[in-house]
Design goal:
The strands form three sheets. The chain has a seven-stranded parallel beta sheet with strand order 3-2-1-6-7-8-9, with helices on both faces. It has a six-stranded parallel beta sheet with strand order 12-11-10-13-14-15, sandwiched between helices. It is globular, with a radius of gyration of 20 Å. Helices cover 37% and strands 19% of the residues. Strand 13, helix 10 and strand 14 form a beta-alpha-beta unit. The two termini are 15 Å apart. It has 361 residues and is of the alpha/beta class. Helix 1 packs across helix 14, helix 3 crosses helix 4 and helix 7 crosses helix 12. The chain folds into two domains: 182 residues, Rossmann fold (3-Layer(aba) Sandwich); 173 residues, Rossmann fold.
């Protein structure tokens, strides 16, 4: 079976969607199928080409983008996907360029769409719905996606719920956090407002003997660094900026727990907490009505705190820092949960079964 993935970006572009596509494509290839990914390559990525090791196990074609118009990359080469051979075409939404490819294709190859999030651009929603109309199946990782993604209204009969999975193997060998120094919290993600890092910094300022590593870059970075100075956090916060994906286990190895302080449902699932749980780290998440609630189990694999509650987040961090036995127990429970529900193998096998089903249909 040959599966063509139509994605917006691909590794080493780091993000939740990109990790899902990479794990799914590589997992499918590992099961003996052919997997090809068509993605956009930005000018920034083109300049950095060759600066990172290439360890991709799938065929990847990247269409160069001449720039962005709002959230849309201008990459006419992406339309080559109109003619690419495939038994199944897997579209990763939201992605209007992929929707154009689907609109132009004359092939009878069945289409599977994964709705990662809702598209904020209502002007292009009609194009997405055309792709959903042609789709033989629609995949979401949680029931919350069905309610939160308005594009899915009317397509409920096509939906399959397949939780996202991670490559758990790269996290199982992460050593325990070093002893004899202050507890260290870890945040990994793009620095945007919805990530709630400002809330995390304010919570950190109300704790003692807890440091913080921030891994990621984004438009909020200057404001957040200014806020950290205003809160007099000094050297308690380390800013790593964009960090090589292959080195993230090093950062995880220095952390006692991981925090995902997101404040809006733009945080639709939460792969970073899954990776932390696979590394036997407890996690702190916020009480979002999104797929995040399917990942972290309050009181079992970590803590769930109210949105934007600085005091509650500070209390949860203080508890994990001050009670290593509780943190260890939660970390072990988190690893078991990942191995039972969220591995790459589980996600891949269920997708392959879905591909075979739509091919049979």
């Amino acid at each position: 079976m040959r599966v063509l993935h139509l994605a917006k970006y691909y590794w080493p572009h780091s993000g939740g969607v990109e990790r899902v596509v990479k794990n799914l494509a590589e997992g499918t290839a590992a099961l003996g199928h052919e997997a090809e990914v068509l993605a956009v390559e930005t000018h920034w990525q083109w300049e950095r080409r060759g600066k990172r090791p290439k360890r991709q196990r799938t065929s990847v074609t990247k269409a160069f983008s001449f720039g962005a118009l709002g959230l849309q990359e201008l990459a006419p080469g992406y339309l080559a996907g109109t003619w690419k051979r495939a038994d199944v075409i897997h579209v990763h939404h939201p992605h209007s360029l992929a929707d154009v490819v689907i609109l132009l294709r004359l092939s009878r190859a069945p289409i599977v769409v994964t709705q990662h999030a809702s598209d904020p651009r209502t002007s292009r929603r009609w194009l997405a719905r055309r792709a959903l109309t042609r789709a033989a199946a629609i995949v979401v990782p949680s029931r919350a996606h069905v309610a939160l993604c308005s594009e899915l209204e009317g397509f409920e009969s096509k939906i399959d719920i397949i939780p996202f999975g991670i490559n758990e193997g790269r996290w199982l060998d992460v050593p325990g956090a070093p002893a004899g120094r202050p507890a260290r919290a870890l945040f990994i993600g793009r620095l945007e407002r919805y990530k709630g890092v400002d809330v995390l910094l304010r919570a950190l300022s109300r704790t003692e003997d807890i440091d913080l590593d921030v891994v990621g870059h984004g438009p909020e970075a200057p404001r957040l660094k200014t806020l950290a100075k205003a809160l007099e956090l000094g050297d308690r916060v380390r800013w790593f900026g964009e960090y090589p994906d292959e080195d993230l286990p090093v950062r995880m190895g220095e952390a006692d727990f991981v925090v995902l302080p997101s404040v809006t449902v733009k945080e639709m699932f939460g792969l970073v907490p899954l990776e932390a749980m696979a590394a036997a780290r407890p996690v702190i998440t916020t009480d979002l009505p999104s797929g995040v609630k399917d990942v972290n189990v309050a009181g079992e694999t970590g803590f769930v705190v109210p949105l934007r509650s600085v005091d509650s987040l500070a209390d949860a961090m203080t508890t994990l820092a001050g009670d290593p036995a509780v943190a260890r127990k939660m970390g072990e429970a988190g690893r078991r949960r990942v191995m039972e529900k969220f591995t790459r193998g589980m996600m891949t096998e269920r997708h392959v079964g879905l591909y075979e089903k739509v091919l049979g249909g």
